[in-house]
Automatic annotation (TrEMBL):
Reactions that this protein is recorded to catalyse: 8-oxo-dGTP + H2O = 8-oxo-dGMP + diphosphate + H(+)
EC number: 3.6.1.55
Keyword field: DNA damage, DNA repair, DNA replication, Hydrolase, Magnesium, Metal-binding, Mutator protein
Record bears the keyword Magnesium: yes
UniProt protein name: 8-oxo-dGTP diphosphatase
Length: 143
């Protein structure tokens, strides 16, 4: 079986040191995933670094520029998280430095969730354990 494709995404928070809110995005495509919530991001293009891909995706999908904070390390290769047989994902904390996020591509709604209530929206199945780990990390002091 082919190696899973790398997706990069951002856990956009209001403050990298003392986060109180996280930006979740509701997918519009494909039909099987429409209406479920996720971290903004997307696939890394050939010849692109993961960090460059993430900045590009945030610009394209939300119209924002962001500074990246710490990565939430997952259990798989390169600290990635398993999503499905086809995809794995790396996730960074991030804070918007320019622009107001809007659902420009792939999403029809954005919502700032209190970090104390991240399960109030139906996340994509693969994101559920990641959201749980993120919750724990956001309550732990930054390293
Ligand atoms: N962006 C993102 N994708 C996720 C998350 N969780 C999850 O299972 N996925 C899946 C959904 C998709 O099948 C795949 C990522 O594809 P994508 O559609 O976001 O990537 P992309 O923006 O590069 O898409 P495209 O250019 O091919 O349309 O990973 C998540 O939190 N964020």
């Amino acid at each position: 079986m082919a190696a899973p494709i790398l997706v990069v995404a951002a856990a956009l928070v209001d403050d990298l040191t003392h986060p109180t809110r996280l930006l979740a995005a509701r997918r519009t495509l494909p039909a099987a995933l429409a209406g479920r919530w996720e971290f903004p991001g997307g696939k890394v293009d050939d010849g692109e670094t993961p960090v460059a891909a993430l900045h590009r995706e945030l610009r394209e999908e939300l119209g924002v520029t962001a500074e990246l904070g710490r990565e939430l390390p997952g259990p798989d290769d390169e600290s990635s998280w398993p999503l499905t047989d086809r995809y794995r994902m790396r996730l960074w904390l991030a804070r918007i430095t320019a622009g107001t996020p809007a659902p420009l591509e792939d999403h029809d709604e954005l919502r700032w969730l209190p970090v104390t209530d991240l399960h109030s929206v139906p996340w994509l199945d693969g994101d559920v354990p990641i959201v749980r780990a993120l919750e724990a990390a956001l309550h732990a002091p930054a390293r």
